[in-house]
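Researcher: Please translate sequence to structure tokens.
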Amino acid sequence: MDVPPEPSTLRVFVALAPPDDAKDELEHVLRPAYGSYPRLRWNRIEDWHITLAFLGELPSTAVPPLRSALARRAASYPAPELALLGGGHFDERLLWSGIDGDLDGLHLLAAEVRGLVRSCGIEFGERPLRPHLTLARSRRDDPTSVPQAAAGLTGFVGRPWRAERLHLVGSNIGRGPGPIRYRDIEAWPLGGAVRRGGDSAPAEA
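Model: Translation complete:
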């Protein structure tokens, strides 16, 4: 069987992802919304992530040095303790769940990642970090579903969890009319120290 050639470019971002049990907790709360707002384009649960740096379309040759730099940094950076919290929307079009916990540590990690990317000679558009988990997008003729679904998440408070791995992710955005799909190019464990509220503590045995 012929193996399809690797693409010459990749659409890439660096992200964290909640563990499965934290995603299951949010998915349980969202179940009524799946039925109530069928026209929303819901992201797959396995694709939920917190973007730290969106790099856009890169030549595939730029990926190997980026992988090496991120692997080295991940091993020495404490895993921040985070939680999913509530919900909201951007411009009535994009539904998200918020992020709580060690936001200082999360912003520091994002700054480290962005600095590493630039040190690899990769230029990308800087966007302010607004930590969130994208859940769904609306169609252009549906201005009400996203705000209503966001209101249904107002009281949601997820359990704390550690962001244990740093993910380099590729997507198929712009590569066809189908749904957006993501895949890990590679993921690396973050360092064993637990960061809570901006402090570091030894890892549990």
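Researcher: Any highlights?
Model: The helical segments are 20-36, 63-76, 103-119, 145-151.
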